[in-house]
């Protein structure tokens, strides 16, 4: 897989919701890194789509990420690809950088569905979480075995930048430090 090109990617944030995040192991780090990715995406004009699993039960996306109207896709299926209209929300020319929860359920099933649909997928290791670490780790291994690239927040940010001469370099680096 080539480098992560900001002109060809969409940041997909899966189910980072108010009633779920307190139960996520290392949830503060997952949330912080997801926030860094979202901020970098906004600075670099990378589109973002959020999913919300059973929002009536798990609540909306956490206020720290505050999706703009129309940026949150409601779903009841664990894998977003199985939700009616989801694939149509993804521009056909965009690869997916994926963050969110839970790694072994909704992130896994969404990533596998995207891969099956022929999409390129990068899963951000330090921006995905599960209630139990072993579930997250097993999901990352399984996603990689099926073709997802496993990356980190910094890898994504610096590949989106591409060069120290990028006009947004200093702003993005401030997000990482």
TrEMBL record:
InterPro entries: Isochorismatase-like_dom (IPR000868), Isochorismatase-like_sf (IPR036380), Isochorismatase_domain (IPR050993)
Signal peptide range: none
Domain Isochorismatase-like: 9-154
Pfam families linked: Isochorismatase
Record's protein name: Isochorismatase
């Amino acid at each position: 897989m080539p480098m992560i090109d900001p002109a060809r990617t969409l940041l997909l944030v899966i189910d980072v919701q108010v009633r779920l995040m307190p139960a996520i192991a290392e949830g503060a780090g997952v949330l912080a890194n997801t926030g860094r990715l979202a901020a970098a995406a906004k600075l670099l004009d990378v589109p973002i789509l959020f999913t919300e699993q059973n929002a009536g039960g798990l609540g909306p996306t956490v206020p720290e990420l505050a999706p703009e109207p129309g940026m949150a896709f409601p779903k009841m299926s664990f894998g977003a690809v199985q939700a009616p209209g989801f694939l149509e929300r993804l521009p056909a020319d965009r690869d997916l950088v994926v963050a969110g929860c839970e790694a072994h359920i909704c992130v896994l099933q969404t990533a596998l569905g995207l891969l099956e649909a022929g999409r390129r997928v990068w899963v951000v290791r330090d921006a995905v979480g599960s209630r139990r670490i072993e579930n997250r780790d097993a999901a990352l291994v399984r996603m990689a075995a099926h073709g997802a690239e496993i990356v980190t927040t910094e890898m994504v940010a610096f590949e989106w930048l591409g060069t120290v001469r990028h006009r947004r370099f200093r702003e993005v680096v401030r997000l990482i430090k």
